[in-house]
From TrEMBL:
Superkingdom: Bacteria
Localization: Cytoplasm, Nucleoid
Assembly mode: Homodimer.
Sequence similarity: Belongs to the YbaB/EbfC family.
Name the record gives this protein: Nucleoid-associated protein EV688_107115
Gene3D superfamilies associated with the record: Nucleoid-associated protein YbaB-like domain
Annotated region (Disordered), positions in chain: 1-32
Record-linked Pfam families: YbaB_DNA_bd (PF02575)
GO-annotated cellular components: bacterial nucleoid; cytosol
InterPro entries per the UniProt record, alphabetical: YbaB-like_sf, YbaB/EbfC
Entry keywords, A to Z: Cytoplasm, DNA-binding
Amino acid sequence: MKGSITEMMQQAQKMQADMQKAQEALAEQEVTGESGAGLVRVTMNGRHDVRAVTIDDSVLQEEKSVLEDLLGAAVNDAVRKVEAENKKAMSQLTSGLNLPEGFKLPF
């Protein structure tokens, strides 16, 4: 029994270290969200920090509200992509754990 507890603790420590590495890698990964068929692009890292915004010159001829809508849509697209990448990476990391549905890691 004692050996299995020690083994479980070692596995938990390894998983924690692996998760830390994965979170650091995800934080540095960049995705690009876009709207208006690529007229507005927002590059964001895994921490949701916006790294770059690109706006096609043709959009500048439109009303301010059009640009605002396109910018908001591009940011939302980037956020969804970051979340999808994070979810994918974490599910790969925890695939063998048989965690209950909706269980969130790290604790």
